[in-house]
Write a structure and sequence with these properties.
single chain; 369 residues; alpha/beta; Aspartate Aminotransferase, domain 2; Aspartate Aminotransferase, domain 1; 2 domains; seven-stranded mixed beta sheet; three-stranded antiparallel beta sheet; 14 strands; 16% strand; globular; binds pyridoxal-5'-phosphate
Length: 369
Amino acid sequence: MLLFTPGPTPVPQNVRNAMSDETMHHRTPEFEAIFEKTRKHLFNLFKSDEVVMLSSSGTGAMEAAVTNLCHNTLLNVNSGKFGERFGKIAVANGLKSVEIKNEWDTAVSVSEVVEAIKNNSEIDAIAVQISESAGGLRHPVEEIAKAVKEINPNIIIIADGITAVGVEKIDISNIDCLIAGSQKALMLPPGLSILGLGKKALEKIGSGKGYYFNLATEIKSQRKNTTAWTAATTLIIGLLEIFETIERDGGLEKLYKDTALRAEAVQAALEAIGLHVYPKTPAKSMTTIDDKDASAIRKMLKNEFGVNVAGGQDHLEGKIFRINQMGLIPIYEIAWVVNSIEMALSKLGRRTYDGSASRILNQILFENK
Ligand SMILES: *Cc1c(COP(=O)(O)O)cnc(C)c1O
């Protein structure tokens, strides 16, 4: 079965092998050496002043960011499940929350955010997804961050990059905190989350908040290449192997280029066979199609063609399907995915199969090689 969900993503064989050794003790020079190398790679990926790894799924890093970086009122952008989650985290931690809500195909605008902060001087942090995975939507986070900082540089910008870090180069000039998770573009099993932090964020963290997710405690340890609590050793060993794999494949720039081109080619291939891309501003992390037969197409892909794509949640259940674009994806796999979708449409009596989807995909990839 080809796993083509936008998280979890497949773990490369060599990375699975690297993680299959005996469990390493975390308080040893051997593990600290691995930690140090991994940290260096993370600095190169995030381009931030500090990086912190946490043993948690992505939501843990979202909570750590909110509790350590918001001390009064959080403005969260809700164009989907993950944006909504930021507001719930704020409330659960006794913080005040203001939300900008849009349909899941619609990105927040810079002016909506500017208006919200002008209307409420208690907002001291903004949380927004770079790529909102609920509908495969790209928010204009860099522009929002710039506009907010021009009005009030003390407002902290928390950017959830869980389906953006490792997908595209992110300009963090005005972003204080950037979040990543292991099971998306980093091609690892779930359980490790990472925060990239800027100087302003480090100042605001001060002595930190909470216990397990106290970022000050973690930063202090991680600067010494160790962790405050037991490290997710196996996942960190896997992460180092991921970075080395990306390097062997040509580096981050090539990964970003390949991902962008693949996303463009898949979109063109599926549009050519009459399908419609759901978000008005698609992210490069996934291709989201809205279709009356979304459920039937998904089932057919899984049962007849060996392809597992994700569906929709809440009000989009049965209305969309989402195809992963994150990570190192062989062309023969994605070519089979678009071809399978075309065959499914044919079986549903929607169009006569003529191989258009894979032809267009291959043509775009070939012309840009
Ligand atoms: C997957 C994801 C998360 C984190 O979810 P976990 O299940 O806690 O790993 C957060 N934000 C976005 C945009 C995601 O895609």
